[in-house]
């Protein structure tokens, strides 16, 4: 017992000091980047700090941000889902069909929203089933379902814009609460729930273990396929909610364009937020910051009159920088 | 290769090597002569493989110098070693199974004609090498279609592409049948006649006696002796290898109770295990001996629900139980410490509390995980086991092997097990940690827990066990109790009667 001193000093610092220690400088990188970006944006454009602009940025961010929350779970588990954009369009079209079938009134809206969550979870379960039971790698399985979901979307809508005939539905997506748009509230509340699920429940702990080393997880009496499968369902659920937010904002959905490239934005937000694509490690608040960084970059480029054609390039560079920083950190 | 025989060729001076703070080699001084076959003997963890990896450039010595032909050289990586004519045939082959023989032989050293590969020339040279090795391998055969012995021939051919002066073989015979061993020995004689120096690691004393000119014995990273084989008999080799009195590091046996803790009946897995039956009592340590690949680990995994079994009944404290998954086993008080600590034991990017509470997490949940409680409990274990870690928040990858092993033990102890299956519980840990672990295992039996130990280290099995079962080819070959337990008897059972060169680790 030569190292008694070591263990004694290691025992139990207070919760606060543990919290401070846990947010070491390296894990703060996304937050620092966000603050730098905020200052830069404020200097570049006078319009940036106008509350209306800021709430618009947040609203813009929330659609892919909600999906990115679910994507964080799946990526931590060691998976990836390319089908979320198509899935969003499919759920969106189905929701409006259900809504138009049910007619007017809040009841119809509530049923439609519940159906969206259930449908999202169901489509997520299909992806999860293909990867766990079918043993197809997540990349390939969701590449296939990306194509399938989009195709079904176009087929059932005849490739035409689907417009809701319920005159209350649009209140969901356009509404405000305490000065913030409803989708932003939904994004933030889901982020808090996601954080708690990831950090403070057995499921979250098991998820990290599965993503880090599935063999160790199975030897530690964890049902690896179940944990992995559930992360697909969580992601599908967030896609369902995002579909509601988007389609109710416009009171319609366009089957060809809705959700196009959302998978890339969601994955980018997760990566910029510091979650490793190799799995096993990640944070929800990082993803929230990652999504907001992407939104602010778009907004700043718009405000400063940069060609919209160049915006994709800037986004790409930001992703590269984020990944390079992760790589350096890993060394 | 016209060097005169028995001139010094390679000299190592004061070679030291440590891995994350644990010293594995303590200043080794050796001179290797040209054209000799030098055997290296030592227990697991004695530092044999590490020393050879330093010579072949896979590891860098922490300090010390290497001289080739009296000139100091720096072997930064295997490519440099190859340039100096030093090649190593590793225990686990480095062959690409989807490529064919000649592509593997020339992998990374392809012959080219202009910008393109000169396949014909590579094929011809491979054929020539294979002829020299007296094998009938087809240079175009795919690696995945070859037997283990054939793969080894390919590895040797790969080493011979360049003029090799020193050929290092790390336990080449463990994977071979007796006939294949004979072929290998003929080949070694031939290479020796050509002036090639062979460095040969083996656990088999008979082989070493037969093949080697000189023998070097390592123990706990120190050079014990280096002398001509002719003057040594097998007993002397063994005692030099083990060196210390066994009872110094092993505690006294505690009294086992008569209450049966675990009873296994008719456990079978297709082609792996046949009708395994045994019992273990409270307070007893039951040892499992057997060769690598005899089915010991698979047996443990089947009991734990980690592997499908074809038949088998498990009784715990006289109750029939069904175990489909590790979760069921844990619920019934079983624990299984895997032999592969990093691959199946611990999450390397989790910290101590996260690892220790991973299986027992339910204990710490009241609505949500009570992080404070997991930290407190990790602190208790680190005190109890004297775990050396920068802090409890350190990720496991920053701990030494011995400390990782202690965390792994703590992780299972936190599930409050009644029956523990410990598979190679001291693999890759230093001698002091070994002693700590042995005393801890002893304390478990004093608390009335039942312990099963699976180990390749004879000394450990004999020092700890009340009873030893020997497994051979998936069957229980015999049982040894109390005073009957002797290395010779275990080996005899493990290797079978007719096997003249039994595969055993270590063999005595």
Distance between the termini of chain B: 36 Å
Distance between the termini of chain A: 33 Å
Structural class of chain B: alpha/beta
Kindly state the percentage of residues in helix of chain A: over 70%
Query: Quaternary state, please?
Result: heterodimer
Anisotropy-based shape of chain A: globular
Largest sheet of chain B: 6 strands, mixed
Query: Order of strands side by side in the largest beta sheet of chain A?
Result: 1-4
Mean pLDDT of chain B: 87
Instruction: Catalogue the unreliable spans of chain A.
Output: 1-13
- Helix segment tally of chain A: 15
Order of helices and strands of chain A: HHHHHHHEHEEHHHHEHHH
Provide the gyration radius of chain B in Å. Answer: 25 Å
Write down the Rg of chain A.
21 Å
* Biggest sheet, spatial arrangement of strands of chain B: 6-9-10-3-11-12
C-alpha geometry of chain B: globular
Proportion of residues in extended strands of chain B = 25-35%
Number of structurally distinct domains of chain B: 3
Keywords:
heterodimer, A: 331 residues, mainly alpha, two-stranded antiparallel sheet, two-stranded antiparallel ribbon, 15 helices, 4 strands, 2% strand, globular, disordered N terminus, B: 508 residues, alpha/beta, Rossmann fold, 3 domains, six-stranded mixed β-sheet
Give an account of the 3D structure.
The complex is a heterodimer of chains A (331) and B (508). By secondary structure, chain A is mainly alpha-helical. Chain A has a domain at 54-263 and 275-283. In chain A, 74% of the residues lie in helices and 2% in strands. Chain A is built from 15 helices and 4 strands. Chain A has a two-stranded antiparallel sheet with strand order 1-4. In chain A, strands 2-3 form a two-stranded antiparallel sheet. Chain A is globular, with a radius of gyration of 21 Å. Mean pLDDT of chain A is 89; it is low at 1-13. With 508 residues, chain B is an alpha/beta fold. Chain B folds into 3 domains: 8-245, Rossmann fold (3-Layer(aba) Sandwich), CATH 3.40.50.300; 246-333 and 417-508, 3-Layer(aba) Sandwich (Rossmann fold), CATH 3.40.50.300; 346-413, no CATH class. In chain B, strands 6-9-10-3-11-12 form a 6-stranded mixed sheet, with helices on both faces. Chain B has a 6-stranded mixed sheet with strand order 18-21-22-15-23-24, with helices on both faces. In chain B, strands 2-1-4-5 form a 4-stranded antiparallel sheet, covered by helices on one side. In chain B, a hairpin with a 2-residue loop joins strand 1 (8-19) and strand 2. The longest helix of chain B is centred in the middle third of the chain and has 16 residues, at 178-193. Chain B is globular, with a radius of gyration of 25 Å. The two termini of chain B are 36 Å apart. The model of chain B is unreliable at 498-508 (pLDDT under 50). Classes of the chains: A mainly alpha (331), B alpha/beta (508). The interface between A and B is large, with 37 and 39 residues.
């Amino acid at each position: 017992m030569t190292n008694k001193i070591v263990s004694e000093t290691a025992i139990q610092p207070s919760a606060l000091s543990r919290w401070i220690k846990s947010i070491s400088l390296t894990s703060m990188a996304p937050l620092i980047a966000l603050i730098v970006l905020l200052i830069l944006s404020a200097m570049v454009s006078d319009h940036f700090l106008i509350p209306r602009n800021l709430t618009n940025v947040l609203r813009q961010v929330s659609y892919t941000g909600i999906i990115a929350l679910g994507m964080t779970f799946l990526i931590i588990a060691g998976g990836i889902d390319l089908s979320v954009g198509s899935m969003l369009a499919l759920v969106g079209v189905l929701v409006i069909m259900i809504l138009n079938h049910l007619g007017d009134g809040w009841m119809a809206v509530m049923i439609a929203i519940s159906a969206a969550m259930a449908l999202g979870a169901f489509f997520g379960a299909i992806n999860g089933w293909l990867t766990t039971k079918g043993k197809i790698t997540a990349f390939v399985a969701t590449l296939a379902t990306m194509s399938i979901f989009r195709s079904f979307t176009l087929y059932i809508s005849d490739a035409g814009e689907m417009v809701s005939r319920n005159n209350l539905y649009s209140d969901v997506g356009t509404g405000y609460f305490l000065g913030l748009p409803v989708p932003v509230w939904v994004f933030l509340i889901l982020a808090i729930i996601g954080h708690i699920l990831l950090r403070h429940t057995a499921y979250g702990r098991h998820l990290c273990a599965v993503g880090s080393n599935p063999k160790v997880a199975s030897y530690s009496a964890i049902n690896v396929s179940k944990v992995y499968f559930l992360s697909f369902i969580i992601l599908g659920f967030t896609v369902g909610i995002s579909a509601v937010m988007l389609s109710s904002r416009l009171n319609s959905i366009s089957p060809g364009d809705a959700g196009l490239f959302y998978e890339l934005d969601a994955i980018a937000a997760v990566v910029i937020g510091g979650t490793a694509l190799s799995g096993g490690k990640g944070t929800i608040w990082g993803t929230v910051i990652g999504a907001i960084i992407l939104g602010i970059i778009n907004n700043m480029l718009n405000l400063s009159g940069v060609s919209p054609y160049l915006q994709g390039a800037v986004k790409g560079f930001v992703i590269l920088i984020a990944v390079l920083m992760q790589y350096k950190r890993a060394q | 290769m016209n060097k005169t025989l028995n001139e010094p060729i390679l000299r190592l001076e004061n070679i030291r090597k440590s891995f994350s703070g644990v010293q594995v080699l303590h200043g080794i001084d050796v001179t290797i002569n040209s054209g000799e076959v030098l055997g290296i003997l030592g227990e697991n963890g004695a530092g044999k493989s590490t020393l050879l990896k330093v010579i072949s450039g896979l590891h860098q010595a922490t300090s010390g110098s290497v001289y080739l032909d009296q000139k100091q050289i720096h072997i930064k990586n295997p490519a440099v070693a190859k340039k100096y004519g030093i090649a190593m045939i590793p225990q686990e082959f480095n062959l690409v199974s989807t490529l064919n023989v000649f592509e593997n032989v020339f992998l990374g050293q392809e012959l080219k004609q202009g910008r393109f590969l000169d396949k014909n020339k590579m094929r011809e040279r491979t054929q020539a090498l294979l002829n020299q090795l007296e094998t009938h391998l087809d240079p175009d055969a795919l690696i995945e279609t070859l037997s283990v012995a054939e793969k080894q021939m390919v590895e040797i051919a790969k080493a011979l592409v360049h003029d090799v002066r020193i050929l290092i073989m790390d336990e080449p015979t463990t994977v071979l049948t007796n006939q294949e061993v004979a072929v290998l020995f003929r080949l070694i004689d031939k290479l020796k006649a050509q002036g090639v120096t062979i460095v040969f690691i083996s656990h088999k004393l008979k082989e070493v006696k037969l093949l080697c000119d000189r023998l070097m014995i390592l123990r706990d990273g120190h050079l014990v002796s280096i002398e001509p084989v002719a003057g040594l008999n097998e007993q002397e080799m063994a005692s030099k290898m083990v060196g210390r009195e066994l009872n110094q590091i092993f505690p006294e046996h505690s009294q086992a109770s008569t209450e049966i803790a675990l009873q296994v009946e008719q456990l079978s897995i297709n082609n792996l295990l046949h009708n395994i039956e045994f019992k273990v009592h409270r307070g007893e340590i039951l040892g499992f001996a057997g060769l690598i690949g005899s089915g010991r680990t698979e047996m443990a995994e089947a009991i734990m629900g980690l592997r499908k079994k074809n038949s088998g009944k498990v009784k715990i404290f006289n109750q029939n139980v069904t175990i489909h998954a590790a979760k069921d086993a844990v619920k019934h008080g079983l624990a299984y410490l895997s032999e592969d600590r990093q691959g199946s034991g611990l999450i390397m990017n989790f910290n101590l509390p996260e690892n220790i509470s991973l299986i027992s997490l339910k204990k710490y949940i009241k609505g949500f995980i009570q992080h404070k409680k997991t930290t407190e409990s990790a602190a208790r274990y680190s005190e109890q086991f004297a775990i050396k870690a920068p802090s409890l928040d350190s990720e496991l990858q920053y701990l030494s092997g011995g400390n990782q092993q202690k965390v792994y033990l703590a992780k299972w102890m936190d599930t409050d097990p009644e029956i523990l299956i410990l598979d190679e519980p001291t693999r890759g840990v230093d001698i002091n940690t070994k002693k700590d672990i042995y005393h801890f295992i002893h304390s478990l039996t004093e608390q009335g827990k039942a312990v099963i130990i699976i180990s390749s280290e004879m000394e450990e099995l004999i020092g700890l066990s009340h009873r030893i079962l020997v497994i051979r080819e998936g069957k229980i070959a015999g049982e040894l109790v109390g005073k009957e337990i002797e290395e010779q008897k275990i080996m005899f059972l493990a290797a079978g009667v007719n096997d003249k060169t039994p595969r055993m680790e270590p063999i005595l």
